[in-house]
Design a protein that fits this description.
InterPro entries: 6-hairpin_glycosidase_sf, 6hp_glycosidase-like_sf. By secondary structure, this protein is α+β, with helices and mostly antiparallel strands.
């Protein structure tokens, strides 16, 4: 062997000897960390090689203090050695320094090495030359690899590897992404002959998974748990076959003897989207020290080779097991068919009491033996490790059975805004708690400019997406905390509350909508001014890019028919910004002066859609009368979500043009609307066993495909809370859209899987909204239950809606996806789902419609101080909805009170059981006509065209004894 890797043999004062590392110093420019190792090397070793990889450093040359030509951080036997790093050939930029060693006097000599770096991890280090057969002070024997392989010294233990493999997982692959340097090629496992060797301790190098992540996030299909690695789950097993025919099985358990590398190491060197985020070690567990101790006590591994940066490695950990000197026939490794990929073991070294002639002997270079953390077979069989693993599970995950029982909703400190009280089930109290937290949370995104996609108030998060393993860290958000945001909102005036001038277009409209819906409108005008300015300055022709505020999207250029198009085609985000601005105008009372002042942006936004369709034969080169979109939902293709958001934006923009008397322009936009509408029907409909359904891209990020129901979800944003009734009464195209939407819902629900929690907004929020608006109340209650009972994250921000939740396949515990980073659309979408229960439909300023949609099991619901538009200005409403369903004759009583009278009010009550016989309805004690309609899975009662400031509606019906809908 010509090269012996000793990277894993460096020691330092902060490296634990007998456990994995949970602390790592932050090294600033000018600071150094000293690494040491002592080796007994034979005469054949003649050089020392150190390799520096810039892509693993936080900035070029930092670790070696930019001294490529004269680095003096290495000492050999007390003497300083000056290193010159030379650029290596190859596609990857790297630098190599080579030091010739003195000729040995005799058969071996000692090397005492010291390396001072401006880094917390050493450089890759190799000895060059022939190792010979130095026996040292122990008998190490290898289970040889399938190839010539490579020798490595890790924590004083020699290993014979097939190769040293360093990697990073960027994509989730069901088929294992190669063997990752397994000792033997993986073929549903591997069996390694041991030839009867009498083994004291067996050392296994690697101990990670070939798909080295924590979870599949929202990138894997619904119901697929194959990518989720939870502490306590088995990843496979090691089987020891003894010469006497007996067998001992060592389970490979995440959090015990197999662990994560990439996810774990990101805390000290976090790269995301090609950008170095920073050192997060001091923020781990928000400073909670016992968290680190729990990890250290649970995991029966020691660190192997830790690359600079946050790459993974097949030499990442060492697992040692005491085999008691018994004769071993073979060692086998197996995976778990529940998981994609397999455990990675790159080398196995046996410490033998007597040399086994059938196994190669490894040279022992270690002058100082590392402290081993060998686990006995007896301890493994007794399961005494399980208590520590369970403690780790409790640290990382939230258990469903730990959900607190609430008799009253929890109200944040400093809260002001609408009030809620719901009764009847635990979920009803959770729902009001959810609104108290997340209504203001949505509003906290709206400042004088954008506050990014991450929460501006949440103080804890976990690593993003597939790397989220449950370990959280603390940081300082834009506004410090939610209670501080309440304070700032009261104290500051528009122009005095800056964000960070950045927001994801997809979240902008949704957050504007929710902020206004709950009455937090103080900074909406300045926010829209910033948004409109970005429209004109950040893309050409003017449009909103994926991230508003990032002008570098202007560098995306392509010539289209003589026009240089700059920016990206985030058509879903563009359309969402359009209808979000409409909701601002609408809820402000539709002021003509505001409309006029902002109409240039309204017009430019529609023109962008028109321009794309006019030039589609040039880019993308095909005519479809649908929108070619570059975003998460379409990936450079076409889908219903992106095109329909723009279609909805056009429809609402027509109303704004008509108010200003721009008749010709409004007519042109109506024609554009019909063109896109028909294009959607022609090109964005798929055939299925459930009939025609809306088209979403199969490989899009949002694998629950709940965005397939965007026509239903957007109905409430400008049109109607009862799309089933209103679209059925519309034109023929409305009815076709309704039919396809209902088919799409049926298609998504064919497995009756209510868990879309991996995406709180794009998944669970959208499906809950759709079930509610389609009056599928049994489904809606189940969707709500999962959403409300998994919003509880006691390690983080309590009841703040996360970006998503990964639920263990047992359903017993869960962890958040991405913490509250990238939460914008998710908090908005899930909050809207709960807000729809309230049923405040003020889309028509001249006709207030109250359409409460609470689950049938809830008994009493009240709101107060809730904003509502009547006429040209908003006021507040309070109501109480009481259901008495204890006998054969049941009553629903709904009372409301406005600040000032309204000329036209209609109220729909329900759900009533499908077999209920509605006898009578009363308005302020007097009989009143009513309509009984069947919609979805229930009956509903309409009392129409009331007026006044307050009133009481009472319905009396006969039905099943409980009066509740049976789910």
């Amino acid at each position: 062997m010509k090269a012996i890797d000793v990277t894993g043999n460096w020691e330092s004062d902060f490296l634990p000897a007998d456990r994995i590392q949970t602390r790592e110093p932050k090294v600033e420019q000018g600071q150094t960390i000293e690494f040491r190792q002592r080796l007994q090397v034979p005469a054949g070793i003649h050089a020392l090689e150190l390799v520096y990889w810039p892509d693993q450093d936080s900035r070029l040359g930092k670790a070696i203090e930019q001294k490529f030509d004269g680095f003096d951080g290495l000492c050999i036997n007390g003497l300083s050695v000056r290193l010159a790093f030379q650029r290596m050939e190859g596609a990857r930029e790297g630098y190599r320094a080579l030091v010739q060693l003195e000729e040995a006097q005799g058969s071996e000599r000692e090397l005492q090495l010291a390396l001072a770096l401006c880094a917390s991890r050493p450089l890759y280090t190799r000895l060059i030359g022939n190792a010979g057969r130095n026996s040292g002070g122990g008998a190490y024997q290898a289970l040889p690899p399938f190839s010539d392989g490579q020798l490595a010294i890790v924590r004083g233990i020699p290993f014979h590897m097939s190769e040293l493999n360093e990697f990073e997982i960027n994509d989730l692959l069901k088929d294992s992404p190669g063997d990752r340097g397994s000792l033997h090629p993986w073929n549903d496992g591997m069996t390694l002959p041991c030839h009867g060797a009498k083994v004291g301790t067996a050392h296994f190098l690697g101990m990670i998974h070939s798909i080295d992540i924590a979870n599949g996030s929202w990138f894997s299909p619904k119901g697929d748990h194959g990518f989720s690695h939870f502490v306590g789950d088995r990843a496979g097993e090691i089987s020891i076959r003894w010469m006497d025919g007996e067998e001992s099985v060592i389970p490979l358990v995440f959090g015990f003897n197999i662990w994560y590398s990439r996810a774990w190491d990101m805390f000290w060197h976090w790269w995301m989207y090609g950008q170095y985020i920073g050192h997060l070690g001091d923020k781990m567990f928000s400073g909670r020290e016992d968290g680190r101790e729990i990890v250290e006590e649970a995991v029966a591994l020691v660190d192997g080779i830790r690359a600079m940066g946050s790459l993974s490695s097949n030499a990442r950990f060492v697992f040692s097991v005491d085999l008691g000197g018994r004769e071993v026939a073979s060692i086998s490794l197996k995976g778990d068919p529940m998981l994609y990929g397999h455990p990675v073991v790159s080398a196995v070294t046996l410490e033998t009491a007597e040399l086994c002639s059938e196994l190669p002997t490894l040279p022992d270079f270690g002058s100082v033996k590392s402290v081993r953390k060998a686990v006995s077979l007896e301890r493994i069989a007794a399961g005494d490790w399980q208590d520590r693993v369970e403690r780790l599970q409790k640290l990382l995950y939230t258990y469903v059975d730990e959900l607190p029982v609430l008799n009253e909703p929890l109200v944040p400190d400093g809260y002001f805004g609408p009030r809620y009280r719901f009764e009847g089930t635990p979920d009803s109290v959770y729902a009001s708690t959810f609104l108290y937290r997340n209504g203001p949370e949505c509003a906290a995104y709206i400042a004088d400019n954008g506050t990014d996609c991450s929460s501006s108030t949440a103080r804890k998060a976990i690593p993003h997406y597939i790397y989220g393993m449950g370990i959280w860290f603390g940081f300082d958000p834009v506004f410090g905390s939610l209670d501080n945001w309440f304070k700032l909102y009261r104290e500051r005036s528009p122009g005095e509350l800056p964000g960070i001038s950045e927001a994801w277009a997809r979240g902008v409209g949704e957050l504007l909508r929710e902020s206004l819906a709950f009455g937090y409108d103080k900074f909406v005008r300045s926010y829209v001014d910033w948004l409109d300015n970005a429209l004109f300055t950040e893309a050409n022709p003017p449009h909103w890019n994926r991230i508003v505020g990032r002008s570098w999207y202007m560098t995306y250029e392509v010539e289209v028919g003589g026009t240089v198009e700059k920016g990206n085609r985030e058509n879903d985000g563009h359309g969402i910004c359009m209808w979000g601005r409409y909701m601002v105008w609408h809820w402000m009372g539709r002021p003509a002066d505001w409309n006029e002042r902002h109409f240039a942006a309204t017009e430019a936004a529609v023109n962008w859609i028109e321009w794309q369709l006019a030039n589609d034969l040039i880019r993308p080169g095909v005519r479809k009368d649908a929108l070619f979109t570059e975003s998460e939902c379409a990936h450079g293709s076409y889908d219903i979500y992106s095109s329909y958001n723009c279609l909805h934006g056009i429809k609402l923009s027509v109303r704004m043009a008509e108010q200003l008397g721009k008749t010709e322009l409004a007519e042109r936009w109506k024609q554009l609307y019909e063109r896109l509408r028909q294009g959607i029907l022609l090109h964005l409909v798929d055939q299925s066993e459930d009939g025609p359904i809306w088209h979403t891209e199969e490989d899009c990020y949002w694998q629950d495909h709940a965005h397939k129901l965007v026509p239903i979800q957007l109905a409430t944003d400008g049109d109607s809370y009862t799309p089933l009734e209103d679209w059925a009464a519309g034109d023929s195209t409305d009815r076709i859209f309704l039919e396809i939407s209902e088919n799409s819902y049926k298609h998504l629900m064919r497995t009756e899987n209510y868990n879309c929690l991996r995406m709180y907004g794009y998944g669970q929020g959208m499906m809950t909204q759709s079930a509610l608006l389609l009056d599928r109340m049994t489904d809606a209650e189940r969707f709500l239950h999962l959403m409300l009972t998994h919003a509880y994250l006691p390690h983080m921000e309590g009841w703040a809606a996360p970006e998503g939740i990964i639920v263990h396949r047992s359903g017993a515990y869960y962890l958040p996806v991405n913490g509250y980073m990238g939460q914008d659309s998710h908090v908005a979408g899930s909050t809207k789902a709960v807000r729809l229960l309230l049923g405040i439909d003020d889309n028509d300023p001249d006709h207030l419609r109250l359409v409460p949609r609470y689950p049938a099991s809830w008994t009493k619901m009240s709101i107060s101080e809730y904003p509502v538009l009547t006429g040209q200005r908003r006021q507040t409403i309070a109501y109480v909805y009481d259901r008495d369903e204890l006998g054969d004759v049941c009553e629903h009583t709904f009372s409301f009170e406005l600040q000032r009278p309204a000329d036209r009010i209609s109220v729909r009550l329900g759900p009533f059981p499908s077999d209920a016989e509605i006898d009578r309805a009363f308005w302020n004690g007097s009989d009143i006509p009513f309509d009984c309609v069947a919609s979805g899975d229930s009956k509903w009662v309409w009392v129409r065209n009331l007026n006044g400031k307050s009133g009481v509606i009472r319905t009396v019906y006969k039905g099943i004894t409980s009066g509740a809908i049976k789910g």
